[in-house]
Amino acid sequence: MNASNLPLLLIIFSLQTNFVYLSLSYDRDQGDYDCGEDDTSDSQTCQMRSRPKEDHKSQIPRDPLIDCHPDKNVNQDSCTARGCLWNEDNDATNAPSCIYPEGHGYLVRGEITQTNNGLEAELERIKTPKIYDSEIYDRLVVTAEYQTESRLRIRIAPVGVKRYEVPKEAVDIPSPETPPSGDRLLYDVTLVEGKPQFGIIVKRKGESVAVFSTDLPGMTYSDQFIQITTRLPSDNLYGFGEHNHRRFRHDMNWKTWSIFTRSIGPIEPDNLYGAHPVYMNIENDGRASVVLLKNSNAMDITLQPSPNPAITYRVIGGILDFYIFMGPSPEQAVQQYIQAIGRPVMPPYWSLGYHLCRWGYKDIEDMKMVINRTRAAGIPYDGQWVDIEYMYKYYDFTYDRKKWTALPEVVQDLHENNQRFVVIIDPGIGANRTIIEEAAVNSPGYNMFDDGVQQDIFIKNESNKVLIGEVWPGVTAFPDFTNPKTQDWWLKWMNFLYHEENIKYDALWIDMNEPASFVHGSTEGCKHTRWNYPPYTPHVAGSEVDGKIYERTICMDYIQHWGRHYDVHSLYGHSEAIQTYNSLLMQSPDKRPWTMTRSSFVGTGKYATKWMGDNESRWSNLHWSIVSIMEFSMFGFSMNGVDICGFWYEAEYEMCLRWHQLGAFYPFARNHNGRWKEQIFRHQDPAAWDQRFVDIVKPVLMTRYRLLPYLYTLMYKAHEEGHMVMKALLFEFPTDRNTWSIDRQFLLGPALLISPALEPNQTIVEAYFPKARWYEYNQGNEIIPGGTTHNLYTPLNKFNLHIRGGHVIAVQKPSTTTYESRKNPMGLIVALDEDQLSNGQLFLDDGQSLETSKNNKSTIIQFKMMKAGELLIQSVINNFKGAEDLYIKSIDIYGLNRIPSDVQINHESVDDSNIRQSGQIIQILNLSIKLTNKALITWMIY
Fold first, then answer.
1. Where is the signal peptide (predicted)?
2. Distance CA 92, CA 253 (A)
3. Between these two residues, 70 and 633, which has the higher pLDDT value?
4. Which pLDDT tens digit goes with each residue over 136-159?
5. Residue 339 Cα to chain centre, angstroms
6. CB of 611 closer than 8 Å to CB of 513
């Protein structure tokens, strides 16, 4: 149904699906409520009358069960006092005991209006009791806006009331100037007028499948408690973050996940560093949709299992602002989402190399030892990072001139060896007067806190008093990165470290930006307000005891430029990432900014890349790392990773080795470990172990460097088109149900499959290979048959990497830095599909300049097989001068299985001595094909 023939009113009470209600009526003359003579149903004392002649069990709806008492101490009396039903015979594990009856919510008031780009209606609350002590809104306006053919926005807000919304400066998904054509929409939208309650139903165009359906009881809209439930077409649910989900496809068995940025290690399934209220749902035929709730307030997400899968949102502020992306494939749905929120930042080429860091370098000599032994071992290595110990007493943008005396010289040495240096920066600005004076002696001219007070950029309360918390420097103040004035101040002190302190960093690593504080709220605590102690407290870490929401962060009632901290808390790291990106760009206008952040929000990937925080040196964290990176790929972060070998605790030999075999294929590969108070964990960089460790790890890291042209091209496609880099198998094989739950394997782009060993003493890896031609990377052996699980023999010195038929991958002879590797000869991997065909692409630029693809400074090479045995190489764009110096020296063909009798390049035969077979790989060697010249390679099999 298109916009021209949508019915204005539709009462839906359908028996065509298994979503069937046993109807209850709540007309006052039927005596369902005893609310007193004033006929107000807002009273907490409004009690539900019993119906002695009616079977209580018959009142329990068979549709999704919506919890009417999600807080603590539920019993039958407290349940019925809310006008809800006591589900005493519930037989589903963890299902709610107190549930909403039908008729609790809103009805359409007046007529549904058809606008030039959608539908609009005013809603009126059904007179049922409110649940929490928060002003409830009787009238709402709902707008369904057709934004694109595949994107729909549904906005629900109170009539005549201005409420906080996520600012456009944070996330801007603009409405189109011209509405999309109704005939081309991928969706139909129905506003359900009435009884038992209002709802919104979004279906695929001309079909019965509802991807979003809210015509369920329990919709509540009050000042500090908003609730809505939507049915799902299946229980194949992915997304919502940031948490340690432990699995990629969600456990739907009444799981509740809280979303609210928090400084806490990814150990238990608590709310972690980022806030991403977005999910993907795969329908039973493999089609998918993505749904975003653009809201930055704290919330709970409760998942309900089959046979009636559903999601209930409980949000404590803002508005309901949904964006629905219709796909129809999972890859398309996620791509549409990423394009809407902002495509990922393009990282510099060197960032794709291998990196080393630790929190626990004793001094500059300790770090120099690691640098030197890594170089001596010949391990590829591009980035050296430092954690907080380099600072003078943890004061931002300083370095300790006693323990780290030669730091500028070490940074210079790194640069002279074509390596890079990255420093950590925390948002907590030291405010201790004694240490400020000491820091000014250590770093002449340093007065960052006083300058911040003078510039008026710190977070303050309504009485204009700066909030003081406590982080690594001791007492600290927190910059308000939502304030545009903070930009110049932040840049000034970045320049202080770079120029005055002479620390020529190449990127910034922003940490502790949830924001984290070691005291709850502030050094003076927090006032007992409705912001610090909301009527409903989501199940966020730390709120379990007394309902406070500010544990290990700052008070919720303090004021920022974008709004009260209560509303913008989860935007703190996001706003810092924006200002850090902009500052780096102003600092070096011709250089591509690179920022690594811990905290994030919807769209942060446009400004920063992401690592997963303080993981543990435990075997379980290897598997979790795959899940978390695949999730953040969906959230719009093309470059993300997990600390290889783990951050907390001491790594085991075998675990650290296996982790390198896994982490070598992370989009971001960094070995980083920590300390615990005075206990400094052992070094875990590869050269810290023994020669056997180096001999096993070095080849897999060299493999990463050999594949960097392919990985960099994936980053380009993510930046330009919103593709994912590391992703689950289901995105390439959405109709293969076996892939829907796979999270112990992953893909890099469409062509590379990684199946790591994740358990101690493991020598057999059970790996699933979807229907396609797959080849083992080192020997070229084909995995037969496809569409089944194979046991891969994986001793300690082996890693599992397979290439998918149908893809051409550009490779480059690896060196120990990306700088040297980029000058080396190129090669091609040609993996043939069932039709003996293969295609691919290569993106090239200088690896560091901003927006080279838009400034005519890049080159794109296309590899295309016109027919079996005929590969065409040609440049689509050729504006990067460095590409002129690159030559293809070898071609490896997977899937021929025997040496071809005649190989020609531009119709000239290749000498037979340059054609050989290595394992099952046909190699054409000693070539000299200029990369940017058009070339035709042909071969014949007789």
1. 1-22
2. 9
3. 633
4. 999 999 999 999 999 999 999 999
5. 14
6. no
Distance (Å, rounded) from C-alpha 552 to C-alpha 199? 39
> Mean per-residue pLDDT for 854-874?
96
Amino acid at residue number 412: Q
Query: Do 117 and 192 belong to one domain?
Result: yes
DSSP state, residue 458: B
Please write the tens of the pLDDT for every residue from 35-91: 332 333 333 323 322 233 334 444 555 689 999 999 878 899 999 988 899 987 666
The three-class DSSP label of residue 714 is helix
pTM of the predicted structure, to 2 decimals = 0.93
Is 155 within a domain? yes
Q: How far apart are CA 609 and CA 726, in angstroms?
A: 14
Ramachandran assignment for 295, one of left (phi > 0), alpha (psi -120 to 50 degrees), beta (any other): beta
Residue 573 falls in which region: left (phi positive, over 0), alpha (psi -120 to 50) or beta? alpha
d(CA 211, CA 283): 8
Question: Of the residues 267, 302, 330, which one is the last residue of a structural domain?
Answer: 330
Integer Cα distance of 518 and 387 in angstroms: 18
CATH of the domain at 276: 2.60.40.1760
Question: In sequence order, what are the beta bridge partners of 917?
Answer: 922
Q: What tens digit of pLDDT does each residue of 558-589 get?
A: 999 999 999 999 999 999 999 999 999 999 99
Do residues 340 and 324 make contact, with C-beta atoms less than 8 angstroms apart?
Answer: no
Report which of residues 447 and 81 the model is more confident about.
447
CA nearest neighbour of 97 among 131, 74, 129: 74
Span 574-631, pLDDT tens digits:
999 999 999 999 999 999 999 999 999 999 999 999 999 999 999 999 999 999 999 9
Which residue reads 């709402």 in tokens? 140
Do 915 and 902 form a contact (C-beta atoms < 8 A)?
A: no
Regarding whether 622 and 531 lie in a shared domain, the answer is yes
Count of residues in the chain = 942
